[in-house]
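Following up on my earlier thread - several people asked me to post the actual chain instead of describing it. Fair enough. Here it is, all 340 residues.
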Amino acid sequence: MLLSDFDYELPEELIAQTPVEPRNASRLMVLDPATETIRHHHFFELQDFLTPGDTLIFNDTRVMPARLIGHRDPGGGRVEVFLLRRVEGDTWETLVKPGKKARPGVTVRFGDELAAEIVGHTDFGGRLVRFRYEGIFEEILDRLGETPLPPYIHEKLADRERYQTVYNRETGSAAAPTAGLHFTREQLQTLKDFGVNLGFLTLHVGLGTFRPVKAENIEEHTMHREYYAISAETARLIKETKAAGHRVIAVGTTSIRTLESAATAKNEIDAHSGWTDIFIYPGYEFKIVDAIITNFHLPKSTLIMLISAFAGREFVLRAYREAVKERYRFFSFGDAMLIA
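Reply from S.P.:
Thanks for posting it. Predicted structure:
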């Protein structure tokens, strides 16, 4: 399939710059791929489309304050270091801007508390850096780091917790699993009281979220690896849900990729942790996921390819055109879609 097959026209003013309040006041487009029907609702109405016994699967990752601003030592220019993942000890895989002068041996200082020496290159143009500090790294990072926002968001976020889900637990992501941003604690409790099961897994969102697809033949695209973990408790909940004839509903593309990475066969999954570079595009046969809650994704992105694999490319693009017509809000702080 061609990259151009997943393009659509999006007016820039529809890219959401700030989140709505409360979280679940966002709109919800409900898609039925079997009948190719589209309905318009709000996220606080989600329960109307669920049944007791269904299971929602959430990604409980937490976004790191991964953006550090420093200066080359001694007396050099401004440098941005974006943390992607810990390699070992105090060595991290990062993106460094500007990259031209970020050569091995260069030191970047972030005030008096923290310094980083560039010790190598990565295979995707990033840098390996080794941090030096006294104290607890996570506490220093929390003081000095900024929560990174996607490049299409230009507004300053007043409350950085607003770019975190209310159920986050495991720090390690470079970006939020944004489909989960719509849920409030109260709505989660209401769904639980209604009889919907809540299950959790972890996928730490990495570089692949920001990496554009450059190959015109999409099958030539290589995904960046991301770490994931599914507990025995979550695997058991999924198997019990399937055995009872109910649905497993993935909240967000990161949950989808994790569930499908850990699947061992149709309707079968085991507890597992490791690295995944799964790339899902039309033609893929889903093993675990029965329905999806997701946001609206960038044109020609791997995420819109994944959604097209689940619901059909032409139907998805028709839904996106209708979303533009109806003035839905797009991307991380935008509105949501339920595909069931």
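The radius of gyration is 20 Å. That should answer part of your original question.
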